[in-house]
């Protein structure tokens, strides 16, 4: 069953990462601008802002499987059709694919929250984040190699969601659902969101603005324009950050026991800051691995720790909805990042991203001043 959960997670991150190194070639093939090519990312992430909470409420009321299976099939079919579409049709198909993918990662984490508790939950979430990072690491390499032969080939990889959907159908999982009347459920949702939870949502927004704006869109364009890097080289550099993320995420239980979730998040934002600060000054392609190492340290600590905080806060009957609201916030960051950052100069983008990360590192210190206890006695840890 855990392998199926990991499969859902892997599908949840293929939608952008496998296309990232191919963006310069897609741009040339379709004859569009850099802003237009950024819209292929935003068209995919935009539906998650609106559809993820709906998917979460449906998953709470009718079960996780009944939402996951059709979502996976919609993701696969609309994604593969992009390989045969013109730019305008591709935008529509990417939007539909984004509907299918809007809640996949949130629901995989929700199922983990349904099954595991305490440090074991942190451990499995760390493994899940590590698997996610392995996917994000390998997809750019695969996408870069496929795009080297034809820019259409990366779109065909979205078909992997079909066998994952079949596996979900047969997953031996006691599908969690609430029997609470809808009016009571919605009223409980209103009271489920605390000040801390709102802050965690906003910090997740910042993470994905940085990831999708600075790292997955602006960095590939910088590597191509300034260093004449081809799609394979771009894919390897992007993938290296995810490889470092995977290694760190797999040790999340260690960080959680030592620093607590809040302390781990705070540390991770410092690594984000450092990675963004060094990128404008890197003189050659091999040295970009320093920046991607720092970025991987940040992402490997922040992302699963945020999920752990939010899952620990949410009640069982609202868990899928809370996690998919977080997923909606994530999609908002994924959508805003390319739109805001793609038209700007690379140096300005990295400076802005560094300031944003540093702000949240300091904000976690102020918001959770008593969170330095390495033994987490409460949900804030």
Poorly predicted regions: 371-381
Q: Count of DSSP E strands? A: 0
CATH superfamily: MFS general substrate transporter like domains
Head-to-tail CA distance between termini = 28 Å
Please tell me how large the radius of gyration is.
Answer: 19 Å
Overall number of structural domains: 1
CATH class category? Mainly Alpha
Per DSSP, what share of the residues sits in E-state strands of 2 or more residues? under 5%
- In the CATH hierarchy, what is the architecture at level 2? Up-down Bundle
Q: Specify the biggest β-sheet.
A: none
Silhouette: globular
CATH topology, what is it called? Growth Hormone, Chain: A
Oligomeric state of the chains in view: single chain
| SSE ordering | HHHHHHHHHHHHHHHH
Number of helices: 16
SSE layout and pairings?
Layout: H1 2-17, H2 23-30, H3 34-62, H4 64-81, H5 87-101, H6 104-115, H7 118-149, H8 153-156, H9 161-169, H10 182-192, H11 195-227, H12 231-249, H13 252-278, H14 288-313, H15 319-341, H16 346-367
Helix pairs in contact: 1-6, 1-7, 1-9, 3-4, 3-5, 3-15, 4-5, 4-9, 6-7, 6-15, 7-12, 7-13, 7-14, 11-12, 11-14, 11-15, 11-16, 12-14, 13-14, 13-16
């Amino acid at each position: 069953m855990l392998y199926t959960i990991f499969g859902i997670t892997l599908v949840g991150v293929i939608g952008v990462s496998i296309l990232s190194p191919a963006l310069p070639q897609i741009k040339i093939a379709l004859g569009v601008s850099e802003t237009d090519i950024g819209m292929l990312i935003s068209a995919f992430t935009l539906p998650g802002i609106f559809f993820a909470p709906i998917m979460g409420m449906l998953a709470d009321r009718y079960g996780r499987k009944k939402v996951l299976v059709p979502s996976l099939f919609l993701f696969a079919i609309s994604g593969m059709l992009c390989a045969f579409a013109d730019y305008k049709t591709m935008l529509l198909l990417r939007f539909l694919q984004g509907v299918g993918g809007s809640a996949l990662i949130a629901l995989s984490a929700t199922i983990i929250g349904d099954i595991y508790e305490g440090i074991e939950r942190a451990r499995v979430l760390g493994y899940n984040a590590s698997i996610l990072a392995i996917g994000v690491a390998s997809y750019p390499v695969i996408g870069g190699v496929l795009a080297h032969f034809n820019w259409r080939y990366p779109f065909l990889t979205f078909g992997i969601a079909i066998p994952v959907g079949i596996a979900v159908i047969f997953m031996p999982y006691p599908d969690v659902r609430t029997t609470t009347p809808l009016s009571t459920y919605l009223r409980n949702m209103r009271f489920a969101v605390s000040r801390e939870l709102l802050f965690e949502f906003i910090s997740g927004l910042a993470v994905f603005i940085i990831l999708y704006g600075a790292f997955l869109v602006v960095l590939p364009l910088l590597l191509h324009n300034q260093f004449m890097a081809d799609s394979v080289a771009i894919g390897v550099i992007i993938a290296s950050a995810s490889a470092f993320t995977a290694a760190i995420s797999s040790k999340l239980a260690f960080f959680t026991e030592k620093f607590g979730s809040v302390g781990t998040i705070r540390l991770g934002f410092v690594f984000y800051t450092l990675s963004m600060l060094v990128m404008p000054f890197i003189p050659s392609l091999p040295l970009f691995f320093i920046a991607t190492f720092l970025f991987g340290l940040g992402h490997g600590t922040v992302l699963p720790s945020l999920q752990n905080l939010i899952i620990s806060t949410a009640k069982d009957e609202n868990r899928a909805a809370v996690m998919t609201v977080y997923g909606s916030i994530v999609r908002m960051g994924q959508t805003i990042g390319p739109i805001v950052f793609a038209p700007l100069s690379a140096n300005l983008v990295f400076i802005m991203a560094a300031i944003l990360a540093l702000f949240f590192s300091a904000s976690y210190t102020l918001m959770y001043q008593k969170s330095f206890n390495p033994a987490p006695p409460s949900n804030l840890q």
